[in-house]
Fold each of these.
Amino acid sequence: MNLTTAKTPTVIPAPGDEPLRADGGPHGRHSTESAPADPSGVTATARIRAAHNGRTTTVPLLHSDGPFHLRRLRARGEQARVCVLGAMSAPLGGDRLALDITAGARARLEVTTAAATIALRGPTTIPATYDVRIRVDDDSTLHWLPEPLISTRGSTLHQTFTVDLAPTSRLVMREEQLLGRSGEAPGHLTTRLTVRRGGRPLLDQHTAYGDPAPAWDGPAVLGAHRATGQLLLVDPGLGMPQEPHVIGDDPAEGHAVLTPLADPQALIATAVAPTPAQLRHLLDTALAYAYETPRPDADGEQ
């Protein structure tokens, strides 16, 4: 099963460059009605809703806002595909950004991004927030496969993911973070992932990187690695490994651990690596292993 998406080259500003907003000035406000009165930040919520029309998946709601420009991609079979494009530099300090994604009953939806998301310092010390809210209804499938999030020096970003799954839904969710650009210390990045399935808690996880988070670069967390990420799989037909599986023989090249969750139909792979390319390879390997592993029968035999 290959879920690797085509990459668009990412232009990453060098440390010290002033990010430009849509009005052409440094840290300028977006000129839409969604811009808040406070010039130090942008408030925006983009929305995606996919539905099944009896024959295939359509996207009846595609609402762009602020830095989010949403574009339909060519469908892949019955799977609708949407790409999130950046209309301006974001998130900056003080921004309040949100993305709502709903896959209705029987829908098949993939959401990607065209390039990396870059958290930059802003004109204020107020943290930026980026909330991704996902709902996957009965017998529907969502693939959330964005490009990495890059935390740059001086930035502060609090990111949250809130996922509500129906008992018969399927989810492939990949998240990757790069802590600092080349030769640059990262900013402060926190993420919280909360997943419910059938109304019951499945996963509640919090991570923090960069000062003032304690020991984030110690040997028990990232060590010398600056690329980290995870892959969450929820699938009623998943072939679950009977115990955690380690991927990667050389710690210097990065490694991943594929771990069963309390729900027998859910797995999470967590990886660290020196580069984004090595991180993606580890997560792709974990994905392939999860779907290639035979599912144990009722007696615990393969």
Note: Residues 43-223 form one domain.
Amino acid sequence: MASKLFATLAASLGPAQASLEFKWMIQQSPKLQHLTDMVTRRSRGEPLQYILGESLVLSKSPNLLTSIPGSQPFGPLNLLTRPPVLIPRPETEHWVIKLADRLSASSAQPKSLLDLGTGSGCIPLLLCHLLPQGSLRAHGVDISTHALQLATDNATLCAIPPESTSKNTFTVSLGNFLSPSFPDDAKINLPYDIITSNPPYIPWDEYLQLPRSVTAYEDPKALFGGPTGLDFYHAIARLVRRKHFLRPGAIVALEVGHGQAQAVERIMRLDAHMRDTEIWSDPWGKERTVLAHL
């Protein structure tokens, strides 16, 4: 039976990738019934991170977390993944590490950070891990209760508490930053020193061309950024130009999609009234991040 399951997986992924993934599946769940379900789901295109991530237990599988992709490596962290929350990408990891190097934070003067559309919590949690302890108070907002639960679970996994006087902290709240009533109806504490976001930025024509492994499993609300892909950047600009939303000298760091960096930079300058903008490229040479200073 195992050989038939492997043949099914190989027909979908190719022998080399199937061999690797089948080994991970057996390692995590050797029972034939569970294995059959995993192979069926993977053959239909479901991301492996989701399939394996569902059965990981926070306090009982620390070795498993570092050895198979039921969790997603993100810098030195291993983060849980669950559908339909967006799986953290390496291009995001790259700019977050670069941002950590740029920030001047100390426990004597802690910085406050708001992550808009936090998803798995990957951005603020990595910054909490990289920056000096006691120097960062991070808060994530998302429209999805699934995302907020996953972000909270990842904070627990990474030993980042919601409250502490000596450690970096991370909290979450439900909120829709496209709504005209945001942030008045959200549980956030203004003003902020740092705004981060990897918002939905895929325009409609590109969304229709995405592979099924993305569109069938990852939340479209975390991907589709409106007809041009820029809806959420305009919303962020409206927020940060509000009085008392940012502290003097604040930084806004935004991930952008292919070909959007120049347009988002203009939005930050003209609509958000930010100064000293810059564009960072990812390791593959694509303009990936817009950084703006108040």
Note: The chain has two domains: 2-72, 90-293.
